[in-house]
Design goal:
Length: 157
């Protein structure tokens, strides 16, 4: 019975968004802006940065652009989610992560005018990111793999 998805998936989205927002609130309240604190040495550190752009800080101060893109992506993901509510769990889970990540960063942009970033990978030179960014990345990977496997098996949406 897949009707539980109508209840549990929206609750999961709220929980994921809350975790993202709480992690950002904790960083803002405990780590001074633009400082790095070792967390798991050699793996990652925690920092507090304000990102006025997108990934890798591109497109700085383009809030209208990000608003339009967020509505388009989250709207499309929500539509596809509802359309496939009885479908593949992994497809829905990937969409859930994309929706949660998009909304988590959107809340920052609306409330603060920037996105709070906090995770600094110590073992490689990579952009500093946040929990919502992780949701988006993992969600896109899951969605890509799921759609690829479904195409391989001849399943159409």
């Amino acid at each position: 019975m897949k009707n539980y998805r109508k209840i549990y998936f929206p609750i999961a989205a709220v929980v994921l968004i809350a975790l993202d927002q709480l992690s950002k609130l904790w960083i803002v309240n405990h780590i001074p802006l633009n400082t790095i604190h070792k967390f798991l040495p050699g793996i990652f550190s925690l920092t507090y940065l304000r990102n006025y752009g997108a990934a890798f800080s591109i497109l700085q101060n383009q809030q209208w652009f990000f608003t339009v893109i967020t509505f388009a992506v989250v709207g499309a993901a929500c539509y596809y989610f509802v359309k496939n509510l009885q479908g593949n769990f992994w497809l829905l889970f990937g969409l859930l992560l994309i929706i949660s990540g998009g909304l988590g960063n959107f809340i920052d942009r609306v409330r603060l005018g920037y996105v709070v970033d906090m995770v600094h990978l110590d073992f490689m030179n990579f952009a500093i990111f946040n929990v919502a960014d992780s949701y988006l990345t993992v969600g896109v990977i899951i969605l890509f793999i799921t759609l690829w496997k479904e195409e391989e098996n001849g399943i159409n949406h």
